Every structure is written in structure tokens, then in C-alpha cells.
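Quick one:
INPUT:
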């Protein structure tokens, strides 16, 4: 298991487009990927789960990856979040 904290930088948070980008990219990995936000644990491969979490700009989240390709998944998550999901 590997994990890292991130701050969401997108002005409108994880709305539909960045949530879709994140879910699609995380879906390419075999490992389990979870977003921890407050008391909530969200499946990072599920677009609807990410949107339902209502993660806003400035929110600190933890991404947890567990499985065979966990480090690669965490590195990709970092790349996506740091780039603002291309927005």
C-alpha cells in the first residue's frame, strides 16, 4: 500500500470533466485506488463516486493505492492532480 496527500487546485474542484479523466486513468491500473476525503472513502475508478464526494478547490485528499501496480498508479494520480487535470 502506498499513499500521498494532495490539494485539489482546480477552481471548481473535481467536477465532471476532471473526475472523468481521473476515473478513466485510474481504471487502467490493476490495483485498488481510493480517495480519502474527510470521513469518506471513494472508489477512484468510479466517476459517479468521485462526483458524489463533492471535492472542492483547496480540499486536501489522500490517494491510497493497493496492489501490483500501486506505485505507478500513485505516480499517475500525482501527475494528474498537479497538472490540474489539464484544465
Amino acid at each position: 500500500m502506498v499513499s500521498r496527500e494532495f490539494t485539489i487546485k482546480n477552481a471548481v474542484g473535481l467536477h465532471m470533466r476532471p473526475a472523468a479523466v481521473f476515473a478513466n486513468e485510474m481504471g487502467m491500473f490493476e490495483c485498488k485506488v481510493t480517495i480519502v476525503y474527510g470521513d469518506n472513502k471513494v472508489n477512484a475508478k468510479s466517476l459517479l463516486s468521485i462526483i458524489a464526494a463533492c471535492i472542492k478547490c483547496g480540499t486536501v485528499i489522500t490517494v491510497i493505492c493497493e496492489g501490483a501496480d500501486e506505485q505507478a498508479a500513485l505516480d499517475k494520480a500525482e501527475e494528474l492532480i498537479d497538472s490540474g487535470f489539464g484544465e
